[in-house]
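Standup notes
- DV: blocked on the single-chain target, sequence here:
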Amino acid sequence: MKSFNLTFVLLMLSTFLFAGKEGAINGKILDPQGAGVPFANVLLLAVQDSQLVKGEVSNEDGGFSIPGIDAGEYFLQVSFIGFDTYNSTPFSVSEGQEISLPPVQLSESANELTEVVVKATKPLIEVKPDKMVFNIEGSINAQGNDAMELLRKSPGVVVDNNDNILLQGKSGVKVYIDGKPSPLSSDDLAAMLKTMQSSEIEAIEIITNPSSKYEAEGNAGIINIKLKRDKNMGANATVDLGYSIGQFANYNGKISANLRQKEYNLYGSYGYNEGQHYNYMNLYREQVGGVFDQKSSHQGSSNNNSFRLGGDYFLNKKNTLGFLVNGNVSNYKFNSDSRMAISRIGSSTIDSFLLATSNNTGSRSNYNFNVNYRFDSGSGTVFNVDADYGRYDNDGTELQPNYYYAGDESGSLLNQRTYRNVTPTIIDIYTLKMDYEKALWGGQLGAGVKFALVETDNTFNVFNVYGGEEAIDPNRSNSFFYSENVNAGYANYSRQWKKWNVQAGLRIEQTNSEGDLKAFLPVDNQNVKRHYMDLFPSGGLTYQVNDINSLQLTYSRRIQRPNYQDLNPFLGYLDELTYEKGNPFLNPQYAHNIQLTHTYKYRFNTSLSYSHTTDLITRITDTAGVAASFITWLNLAEQHNVSLTFSVPFQITKWWSSFSNLSGYYTRNIADYGNGKSVDLAATTFNMYAQETFT
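- DV (later): unblocked, structure below
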């Protein structure tokens, strides 16, 4: 901790020296009921001649901050539709002084209007110092889409046919919902996002180089989905129904409700979706004089139920207690068909044929419970505490018959073996997080800690089936227990100084993990423990070249820890001659990410980024014995990734606006297999997205 404390002191000292003698003004705008007023105009005027010095717009909670103020006499003028204009009493700002003004409470306008129609539209894409914001509310995307479809439309985001999410051509994206990381597996996350309707989403934030406030997990960065919070008094409800068809038809629906009163706010939703999927795999290999040509297909269906119930209790204007319960319950079934022709090298005659079918059924459930407390002084000081517990259950059963034929599959049956696999999994997740923010030295200081514990209990029982009778196979059955504890602390500081905006931070994460394989045969037992600590610096520098051009440079170091499934060394069979197994000795992979962004007229955006990943967790296929092969994971490669992205919005006419996103990615993987064997592979891909909006 000594190095962490020294770094923090040096960071604060350098920021203080950099701060100069400018002051800052912080405050909060409230309505007559004491709720924050978002998007109010806050003007700082000079007392001497009432000339405008600076202006700001209050944030979603009504807070505002005006940095970079010279010494002098000033007063505030605050205005918003439906309220009387407010003029403060004069106040003085000394050199380098930071002032926290008392909350400004607006009064409703005495003039009664018969009708007020306010129409304001945010730009589809906003480029901010630390992220890119894809605004959903008020756009053509606000209806008729689910969250997965919106991600496909987001700049720099690619969703493949298997619903894997890539950011700037890289995997390892961490998805957040309202600022909280999702604990769901990739399959469950995709199912949940398909029930989340665009009508309940305010914006999608794309953060390629997150600040130290965020977890370091996620090589490619973070995607944060911000949900709407209805701020109107009273009760309301919405219903969404959706249908889409591609290779298969998919259905979804959702109902949401909200009740807001002066003292509390309650909200909830229930969603359902149903769909099918299909994929295939071809695997050709030559091994010990033989040729093994395998073709596999996979078709399945699933239904998913999701729910969300939360509330906030406003103790007073500054203190809020909240809770949130959400979950997913899904049922799935899928069938696989694997056909392998076996012959000798140089021969066109098939010697034997292996047909393996697989019938899978199961259910998954995920429940998360959160309680939280928030203190907001209204003058730049914020304190948050979040405590979470989550449980994930997966109960799956697979029946796998294997048939061996002489010659091709029309030949005589040589042998038949049938297996039944039972694979229950339970995951418990505990987290406690505290965050503190304070307006300081003309900027914003943030610091916090987080404690997280994940416990996984995974059982893999394989039964041999003979004539309707079952007997457990001790060579293939086991239990795998995995626990991972991550303790983290961070400090972050940001400040505006004339044309420059500086943000710097450091996060420290200490990880303790243990994987314990309990096999039926004690000789196969394995136990692997790891303890390591890492520093994750991050920073950003923005320069406003002139009124229409700005440059931004960001950097972050990231980590991607192995999934517990990739650590479990049990054997999962696709057929008698092909299986998958985890690697308990996998290490995390690390990435250095840097990005340069140019913004023109606050609309046109060009980004050039580079990422270098070491100890890349790589999926490989290897041989076992004379005929078998297996798929496993190794820390084999290093990866270089370069991406170039153009975001181009155009207002063609008053009623026609256009947005286009063009992306190009270059990826190079260099893997060393040892014994002088290495692989150097490079690929270039392009992606284009265009949207036309008519109003």
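- Follow-up: Confidence is low (pLDDT under 50) at residues 1-20, 112-120.
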